Amino acid sequence: MEEFNMFKILNKDDKELIHSAFIRYLMLRNNCFYNFINAPLLKYDIPILEKAYTTKVNRKNKKYRIDIEVSSFDKSTIIIIENKFKSFPNNKQLECYDRIYNEKYNGIRIIKYLFCFDKNIFKNTTEWIVFDYNDLIDYIKIILSKVNSKDERIFIQHYLNFLNEYIEKYSILKADFSKLLINQSNNENKFWLKIFYSALEIRLHEYFKKEGITINFFF
Q1: How large is the angle between the packed helices 150-175 and 133-144, nearest 10 degrees?
Q2: Could you give the number of structural domains in the chain?
C-alpha cells in the first residue's frame, strides 16, 4: 500500500500554486530562506503570492502573475520568485517579467530567482538566479532537522517525500522519455511532456541564437 501523504490525498501534489505556497511558508518561517538564496541582508515584508501585473504585448494588454514577490522594509529591494513546477519558462516569458519590473520600479533593485526541475537547462542563458528542486530539497532537510513541533515536522516531511518522488521521476524520464509519447492523452504523461518539451524549446532557442537564426517555436 502506498504511504500516506497529505498532499497526494488532497490531489495537490502537482499544482504549481501549492509549491509556491510552500516556498512562501519557508520564507515566513524564519530568515534562513533568505540566507539560502543568498539574498541581501535586509528585513523583508510579507511575501505576496500570485502578484498580478498588466503590460502591453503586441499592442494588447496582457495580465501576468508573479508567483512570489516580496519587498524589503526600506523599499530599496524587491525579490521575485518564479516557481516553474509544470514547465520551464521560455526566454520571452522571463524577458516580459524583466520589462514589467523595469517599467514599474525604475531605480529599485530587483533580484530575480527561478526555481525549476533542472538549473543546468539555464547555464549562461539568463540573468535570473536559478535553483532547482534538488537545491530546495537539501535546504528543507536542514530545516526539518531543526523542527521541534511534531505537526510541523509531519507537514514538512510529507512535502519533502513527494517532492523527492518527482525529482526521482524526472531523473528517470530525463534519460529516456520516449514511453511518454506512447500515450500522450494520459494526464500524468501530459504533465511530464510539457516539462520536457519546454526544456527542448530552451535548448533549441539557444542553439539557433548562436547560429544567428531567429525562429518561433510551437509545441
Answers
A1: 160
A2: 1
